[in-house]
TrEMBL record:
Keywords from the named record: Endonuclease, Hydrolase, Membrane, Nuclease, Transmembrane, Transmembrane helix
TM annotation in the entry: 12-30, 42-60
Keyword Zinc: no
The keyword Transmembrane helix is assigned to this record: yes
PANTHER family (UniProt xref): MRR RESTRICTION SYSTEM PROTEIN (PTHR30015), SLL1429 PROTEIN (PTHR30015:SF6)
Superkingdom of the source species: Bacteria
Phylogenetic lineage: Bacteria, Bacillati, Actinomycetota, Actinomycetes, Kitasatosporales
MF annotations from Gene Ontology: endonuclease activity
Protein name: Restriction endonuclease
Domain Restriction endonuclease type IV Mrr as annotated: residue spans: 117-229
InterPro entries (alphabetical): Restrct_endonuc-II-like (IPR011335), Restrct_endonuc_IV_Mrr (IPR007560), tRNA_endonuc-like_dom_sf (IPR011856), Type_IV_Methyl-Rstrct_Enzyme (IPR052906)
Length: 257
């Protein structure tokens, strides 16, 4: 001790007590760091701050800081660490509330990208029916199977017209021919009373088939148009058929009601 300097027992005891706390924090941090970091990321912050406190204690001992100043710094650091840990825990526990849509905003249409060529024939018909439901059709029904007479999916469009769809899940090398269009054209209007007849395929159509479809008023949806319709890049096939034109000039073979 220096001559003339009084021995402060209280300050000395506080200093060594804080030093002991710092050493305990360091040991506890080294032992529990990995486990706590995996289970509780918030408490990992407390561990890091504990290590920082230990460094402050060591540095303060070298710089000759008084025990009182060291106590103030340590207390402030512990308060900050506690506040930070509590904030992180509150963020983890806070429930995630979805943002409310803006007033007047339209509900977004859910678009699911599907590779229709990978589906079975029954799954393909079901996928087309789901597209009809997505685009606002009512009374959507999958009627494909034996004795369906060419109608695989029927629905009522948003404007009230009856839509009859035939589905052809073909490979790229198998195009829909004119004979298949003729069979569908012979039943879609007279038997199923379609206002809009659509033939959807995962391949394409031959030129005679498209010519016949144009004469009969059948809408042809090939693989490219189907992909655009499915991904929301193009409107539903029946959306491009004006109601007035169809009623004014019924296609050949269709009975006028």
């Amino acid at each position: 001790m220096r001559p003339g300097r009084r021995f402060d027992l209280r300050a000395t005891a506080m200093f060594f007590g804080l030093a002991a706390v710092g050493l305990c924090v360091v040991g506890w941090a080294l032992r529990m760091a990995f486990d706590v970091a995996e289970r509780r990321p918030a408490w990992a912050v407390v561990l890091v701050l504990g290590l920082v406190l230990a460094g402050i204690v060591h540095r303060s001992g070298r710089s000759g800081l008084s025990a009182r100043r060291l106590a103030r710094r340590t207390t402030g650091a512990l308060q900050e660490a506690t506040a930070t840990a509590m904030e992180v825990l509150e963020e983890e526990r806070a429930p995630v509330v979805p943002a409310a849509p803006a007033p007047g905003a339209e509900e977004a249409v859910t678009v699911v990208v599907v590779d229709h060529r990978e589906l079975s024939p029954d799954e393909f018909e079901q996928a087309i029916a789901e597209l009809c439901v997505r685009d606002g059709c009512a009374d959507v029904e999958v009627v494909g199977g034996a004795g369906d007479l060419g109608a695989d999916v029927t629905a009522i469009a948003p404007d009230g017209r009856r839509v009859v769809i035939q589905c052809k899940r073909y490979g790229d090398d198998n195009k829909v021919g004119s004979q298949e269009l003729q069979r569908f054209g012979g039943t879609c209007f007279t038997v199923h009373e379609a206002d809009v007849a659509v033939l959807v395929t995962t391949s394409d159509f031959t030129e005679p088939a498209t010519d016949y479809a144009a004469q009969c008023g059948i809408l042809c949806v090939n693989e490219e148009r189907l992909r655009e319709w499915s991904e929301g890049l193009a409107p539903a096939p029946w959306a491009g058929v004006p109601f007035a034109e169809e009623e004014a000039a019924p296609p050949p073979g269709r009975a006028v009601r």
